[in-house]
Design goal:
This protein has ten helices and 33 strands. By secondary structure, the protein is α+β, with helices and mostly antiparallel strands. The chain has four domains: 158 residues, Rossmann fold; 159 residues, Jelly Rolls; 48 residues, no CATH class; 151 residues, Immunoglobulins (Immunoglobulin-like). Strands 5, 6, 7, 9, 11, 12 and 14 form a seven-stranded antiparallel beta sheet that branches. It has a six-stranded mixed beta sheet with strand order 1-18-17-16-2-3. Strands 4, 8, 10, 13 and 15 form a five-stranded antiparallel beta sheet that branches. About 7% of the residues have low confidence. This is beta-glucosidase. It is an enzyme of class 3 (hydrolase).
């Protein structure tokens, strides 16, 4: 790469930074957006959030919530707006529009909607009676990078007591655990306004604090610069007053334990910080209160979330599986709403009535979730990934493939080749919790009249072959012969079929078409790997109750080709290939063969 080319590329980036006043040492506040722009984009955001909702289970049509039914919102991400995964980039949205699902439901139904946090993310300030500083007295020892030191009975500084700016602070000492059990520690700090302040670390991403127990770092917090602001991203849920929450969940034996907490200053502003906890006794009381609330309503709705990446893999955040399990045991009509960015295991799945996967929706997520629960809109999303049945059954953790996990050499070998993601589960016939492309509706759909049609250049030939082989049944498969010329610029074939809404309400179906490898791949294309199955098309079909429509999904020539490394070109595959009209990667409604 030439120096002039590099300069030109960097120049484009710096020019934009300069245009928005981002090259100096002082940040600039953004101009207020016109209200019509805010509202127009809010409608788009709401539409995206609604269409992204995925209904995973709906026993006895528990959802949508029936008119007149009593409900309760249980779980921290139901009571508060959930901004998304920690330490990850995203569009931040308009803060004034970010409300929780509880707020949205109360706006729709009235203030009678009950609630319980279930798993508290903060707790209460740790009292001095349970802290011991380095001199053995109540409280913790504090040192800062300005050379100061102090003994603080508790760690709670805000407002006029906020700590001096432009300094980092460290607290050391011990904390007393009254009983054996899991403790939640919340090391929270206010995120100051960033407009018109000097940003000494501008353009970087650094930790804003750490929390350690017995010499082991159990939590780390993050700040994000270089995006037009600083956000509280250490946990998927900020504190109730929107402080950043560096949260730690640890098991402690009864007795004294070493504690250290470290925080850095931000944006030339005083530091507001506090140290809180949830003891095992308070944790049990919170869950019991949630159970009590659940027994008093028709439908408890438990909200659960997962920080990403989950350190233990595929798990909800600390304590939430227990919360769901105990609420479901108290009321089998329990609905679970999930906020997560990667698959999670669901040990309680058989015990709940419904599961609505909302992923991490945008600023309008509270409204979108509420309206899907109430039936003001219908779920139509489909899983973009496979939800495995267990951690050991995943592609990278399966013990049958140790080379895919970090080895003694520190390297991993991706031996699956093209068969990654949902293709791997199909290739190995591995059972899953929910397959790629899965999603239910508030209604039901029926598929009929499957048909394969060649491109325009072979329409006549296709019609002749269809007359000769008219939807032959063979072991439940529909067999077709379709010839497609690879020399034709329009060389594609299409799959068409009828979709009928057989239910009583409007709904959206997402039919999908998958294709398998050539049946003679081993002899016709030796040494070439073909995916066990590949999604080649899908459609979004909205239908009123009782309505039908014909769906046509076209398959492009590139999707029927592979890259030949010897000729350095794409090569069209000839021969017979299986094609599946499916509801998801595992549920084929019709299957057949096409001759290319």
């Amino acid at each position: 790469m030439s120096e002039s080319y590099l300069n030109r590329a960097v120049g484009h980036i710096l020019a934009k930074y300069d245009e928005f006043g981002l090259l100096g040492t002082t940040t600039q506040g953004s101009s207020p957006l016109p209200q019509d722009v805010v509202e127009d984009h809010a409608k788009i955001s709401y539409d995206i959030a609604v269409k992204s909702g995925i209904l995973l289970k709906n026993k006895n049509d528990t959802l949508p919530i029936k008119a007149g039914s009593s409900i309760a919102v249980i779980g921290p991400n139901g009571l508060q707006y959930t901004h998304g995964t920690n330490f990850a980039e995203r569009a931040y949205g308009i803060p004034e529009r970010q409300i929780s699902t509880l707020e949205a439901l109360r706006s729709r139904l009235g203030e009678d909607v009950a609630s319980a946090v279930g798993v508290d993310q903060e707790g209460t300030i740790i009292p001095s009676t349970h802290l011991r500083n380095l001199q053995g007295k109540p409280g913790l020892s504090r040192n800062d990078t300005l050379g100061g030191s102090s003994n603080d009975e508790i760690v709670y500084f805000t407002g006029t007591s906020a700590l001096a700016k432009n300094a980092s602070y460290t607290w050391q000492g011990q904390v007393y655990a009254e009983t054996d059990g899991y403790y939640t520690f919340s090391f929270a700090r206010a995120i100051p306004k960033w407009e018109n302040h000097t940003n000494p670390d501008y353009g970087a991403i650094f930790a804003i604090g750490t929390f350690s127990i017995n010499g082991t770092e159990t939590a780390e917090g993050y700040r994000l610069y270089g995006d037009g602001g600083v956000k509280p991203w250490s946990n998927s849920i900020a504190s109730r007053d929107n402080w950043d929450n560096i949260k730690s969940y640890v098991y402690l034996k009864e007795g004294w334990h070493d504690l250290e907490a470290y925080i850095v200053g931000l944006i030339d502003e005083p530091t507001s910080v506090r140290l809180s906890w949830v003891t095992p006794a308070q944790r049990a009381a919170n869950i019991q209160l949630a159970v009590d609330v659940a027994t008093e309503v028709d439908t408890p709705i438990v909200f659960a979330f997962a920080n990403s990446p989950a350190e233990t893999g595929l798990t909800l955040d600390d304590g939430l599986d227990e919360l769901v399990t105990k609420v479901a045991a108290a009321n089998p009509n329990t609905v679970v709403v999930l906020n997560n960015a990667e698959p999670v295991l669901m040990p309680w799945l058989d015990d709940v009535a419904a599961v609505l996967e909302m992923l991490y929706p945008n600023q309008e997520g509270g409204w979108a979730t509420a309206d899907l629960l109430l039936g003001n809109n219908v779920p139509q999303g489909r899983l973009p990934v496979t939800y495995p049945a267990s951690l050991d059954s995943t592609m990278t953790r399966n013990p049958d493939y140790p080379e895919r996990v970090a080895t003694e050499s520190g390297n991993a070998t991706f031996s699956e080749g093209l068969n990654n993601g949902y293709r791997w589960y199909a290739h190995t016939n591995t059972s899953v919790l929910f397959p790629f492309g899965y999603g239910l509706s508030y209604t039901s759909f029926e598929y009929s009249n499957p048909n394969f049609a060649a491109s325009s250049s072979t329409q006549q030939q296709q019609q002749q072959q269809q007359q000769q082989q008219q939807q032959q049944q063979s072991n439940g498969c529909l067999n077709y012969e379709v010839s497609v010329s690879p020399d034709d610029a329009d060389a594609v074939f299409s799959v068409s079929f009828t979709v009928t809404n057989t239910g009583s309400v409007k709904g959206v179906e997402v039919p999908q078409v998958y294709i398998g490898p050539p049946t003679d791949a081993a002899t016709a294309y030796p040494g070439v790997q073909f995916a066990a199955t590949a999604l080649v098309g899908f459609a979004n079909v909205e239908l009123e109750a009782g309505a039908s429509t014909t769906v046509t999904i076209g398959i492009r020539e590139k999707q029927l080709s592979f890259y030949n490394v010897n000729t350095t070109s794409w090569e069209f595959t000839k021969g017979s290939r299986p094609v599946y009209i499916s509801k998801n990667a595992e549920d084929a409604v019709f299957s057949g063969q096409v001759q290319l």
